[in-house]
Amino acid sequence: MGRGREMALMSARPAALFLVVCVAARAALAIQDGLLPNGNFEQAPNKSQLNGSRVMGRYAIPHWEISGFVEYIGSGQKQGDMLLPVPEGAYAVRLGNDASIQQRLPLKRGTHYSITFCAARTCAQTEQLNITVAPESDVLPIQTVYTSSGWDCYSWAFKARHSTETFIVHNPGVEEDPACGPLIDLFAIKTLPPPQRLKDNILRNGDFEQGPYMFPNTPWGVLLPPMDEDDYSPVSPWMIMSSTKSIKYVDSAHYKVPHGAHAVELVSGLETALVQDVPTVPGRPYRLQFAAGDAGDGCAGSMAVQAYAARGSVRVPYQSRGKGGCTRGALDFTAIANQTRVAFVSMSYNMKTDGTLCGPVLDDVSLVCTRTHRARRLLL
Fold first, then answer.
1. Would 212 disulfide with which of 36, 81, 102, 234, CB 3.0-4.6 Å?
2. Are residues 166 and 305 in the same domain?
3. Is residue 223 within 8 Å of 248, Cβ to Cβ?
4. Distances (CA, A) of 44 to 63, 68, 292
5. pLDDT band at residue 87 under the 50/70/90 scheme
6. Domain contains 295
7. Residues of 357-377 as b/e, b for ≥16 C-beta within 10 angstroms?
């Protein structure tokens, strides 16, 4: 009897070892942070699969699959009198009427990821892109331009349900000119670990250090588009509440950041709110603190950030010279529910001299229960 059990255990060990090896191999195969395979479209289609700039083969662009009217655009190419720029490298792709481009991604099941990509409007007036990793899908409005170059980088986040997922970018527009549609370029991915709650801060990711991938050679930041409340945010657990406008994610390499390496710039005035829901105890006092200023990007003038929590609110004004700097804001309030929504809104509409939208920078946000802090001081 003991001999049989020993033999069974010995035969089970290779199977268990094989399973461990398979799991480790699958994890190793998951895509790494950075540019997607041919994410910058510098690997060109064969000339035999091009009709002018139109891509004719479904698999003509290496690592991508296309459908519909898709064009392969070279830097400096023209459409009539309009110059079609490319943000980085020599090539980009344009999605015409009802066109799409997709790529299969090896992922780690149950993990959250963010996709960063750049897009530019061309000849259509209300351009948008439908981004999908099933079952999650969102329409990103791109009609508002936030840079003087015409190119903006966007981010979108999702949870991997399977070890391999299909990432799809679709232009749902139908224009009289079938070639009218957005230019797209520079697709990258980043793994988003669960945001940790720091000591003495009920908020998570209050310093915005966890966020989407940022291209080192694109100095205009990354837009955080509006999202549904059940979506996963690229700056989770912060949510961007708006109908069509965005918030900008910025880094210390290209902007003046009050704290750490990243912050957000509230570039859309009253049309967009940055919110986070946090656990609170009804009847207890809390203090919300934050830094508000300017990102040193030439955004000058009168600014104001309004913070809301429970029944309280505070407005923090800031007179910007566009060269960086910040002031501290604080809001004391009493919780009225088991969950409190903290929200930030720019109360002003600001614009740089080149005509692009800008606004106050927000960073270093914290929330503490002041009763707990008073009790600690008494014990000391």
1. 234
2. no
3. yes
4. 11, 18, 45
5. confident
6. yes
7. bbbbbbbbbbbbbeeeeeeee
Domain total for the chain?
2
Q: 65 CB contacts (<8 Å, ≥6 apart)? A: 58, 59, 101, 102, 103
pLDDT, tens digit, 9 for 90 and up, residues 249-277: 999 999 999 999 999 999 999 999 999 99
Residue-range definition of the domain harbouring residue 286: 268-379
With respect to residue 263, please indicate whether it lies within any of the assigned structural domains: no
Q: In this structure, are 134 and 280 located in the same domain?
A: no
Specify the CATH number for the domain of residue 282.
2.60.120.260
Within a domain: residue 21? Answer: no
pTM, 2 dp: 0.88
- 225 found inside a domain: no
